[in-house]
Write a structure and sequence with these properties.
Catalyzes the rearrangement of 1-deoxy-D-xylulose 5-phosphate (DXP) to produce the thiazole phosphate moiety of thiamine. Sulfur is provided by the thiocarboxylate moiety of the carrier protein ThiS. In vitro, sulfur can be provided by H(2)S. Belongs to the ThiG family. Helices cover about 35% and strands about 15% of the residues. With about 260 residues, it is of the alpha/beta class. It has one domain: TIM Barrel (Alpha-Beta Barrel), CATH 3.20.20. Helix 1 runs parallel beside helix 8, helix 4 (about 135-145) runs parallel beside helix 5 and helix 6 (about 190-200) packs parallel to helix 8 (about 215-235). The longest helix is centred in the C-terminal third of the chain and has 21 residues, at about 215-235.
C-alpha cells in the first residue's frame, strides 16, 4: 500500500485540505468528504473558545475520520507561533503543527529566519513540525537538519491560484529531501496538483482553490483525482522529453512498397 508517512503517522490520502474561506461549515464538511483527505488543517485563531453554545468549526469535523493539523496562521513572530502551537496541544489537539510565521500582510511570504528558529524550539518541545516556506532549497535542508518532519514549499503566493511558479526550486527541494515534501499554496486547479505530484512531491495542501470554487464540493473531488493521477504518473515513470519526434509505429520489418 502506497502510504504517506509524516513523522510517526501514516495516511492513505496524499491530499491535505484546509478549512478556511468556505461559504458555510456545511459546505466545508461536504468538501472534506468529497476530497478523501485524512489530514485537515485548522487555524487555532479561527476556533471559538468562548463556549457560546453555537456550533463551531470543530463541530463539523469528525475526529474519528480526520486527523486535525493545527496551524499557526496569523502569527507574525517566533513567540506567537510557538505559543499558538503550545495552546493547541493544551487544548488536546495532536502534538504536531503546520508552522506559519508570516509578518508581511501584503505578500504573505513566510519569514525564513523566524521559521527556522521556531522549528528548533518546537522540535525541542516534542512537536512534529511541518514548516511552510518559500521554495528555498537551502532553507529546506536546514529545516530537515533541525528535525522538521516535512518541508512545505509554496508553489506561488498563498491564495493566488497561480500554480507552480517556483517549479525549478521545488524540484531541487524534492531531489534533496530526506522528509516528505508537501506543496502548499498557489495551487489553483487539479492540473497544478497533478504536476506537483508528477515531480515527486509527497502530497499537496489545498484550501482556497477548493473553498472559493463555484462548486467547492466538486472541486474537492477533482483535486483528489488530480493528486491521485499525479502520484500514479510519478510511480509509473514518464518518458524523457526529446528534441525530435519519435515514430510511435516502428518502420523496421515492414514490407517494401511495390514488392
Amino acid at each position: 500500500m502506497d502510504k504517506l508517512k509524516i513523522g510517526s503517522r501514516e495516511f492513505s490520502s496524499r491530499l491535505l485540505l484546509g478549512t478556511g474561506k468556505y461559504r458555510s461549515f456545511e459546505e466545508m464538511r461536504d468538501s472534506l468528504e468529497a476530497s478523501g483527505a485524512e489530514i485537515i488543517t485548522v487555524a487555532l485563531r479561527r476556533l471559538d473558545l468562548s463556549n457560546t453554545g453555537q456550533p463551531g468549526l470543530l463541530d463539523f469535523i469528525d475526529p474519528q475520520r480526520y486527523t486535525i493539523l493545527p496551524n499557526t496562521a496569523g502569527c507574525k513572530t517566533v513567540q506567537e507561533a510557538v505559543q499558538t502551537a503550545q495552546l493547541a496541544a493544551a487544548m488536546g489537539l495532536p502534538r504536531w503543527v503546520k508552522l506559519e510565521v508570516i509578518p508581511d500582510p501584503q505578500y504573505l511570504l513566510p519569514d525564513p529566519i523566524a521559521t527556522l528558529e521556531a522549528t528548533k524550539i518546537l522540535v525541542e518541545d516534542g512537536f512534529e513540525v511541518l514548516p511552510y516556506i518559500n521554495a528555498d532549497p537551502i532553507l529546506a535542508r536546514y529545516l530537515q537538519d533541525v528535525g522538521a518532519v516535512t518541508v512545505m514549499p509554496l508553489g506561488s503566493p498563498i491564495g493566488s491560484g497561480q500554480g507552480l511558479l517556483n517549479l525549478p526550486q521545488i524540484q531541487i527541494i524534492i531531489e534533496q529531501a530526506q522528509v516528505p515534501v508537501v506543496v502548499d499554496a498557489g495551487i489553483g486547479a487539479p492540473s497544478d496538483a497533478a504536476l506537483a505530484m508528477e515531480l515527486g512531491a509527497s502530497a499537496c495542501l489545498i484550501n482556497t482553490a477548493v473553498a472559493k470554487a463555484q462548486n467547492a464540493v466538486q472541486m474537492a473531488h477533482a483535486m483528489k483525482l488530480g493528486v491521485e493521477a499525479g502520484r500514479a504518473a510519478f510511480q509509473a515513470g514518464r518518458i524523457p522529453r526529446q528534441v525530435y519526434a519519435t515514430a510511435s509505429s516502428p518502420l523496421t520489418g515492414l514490407p517494401a512498397l511495390g514488392s
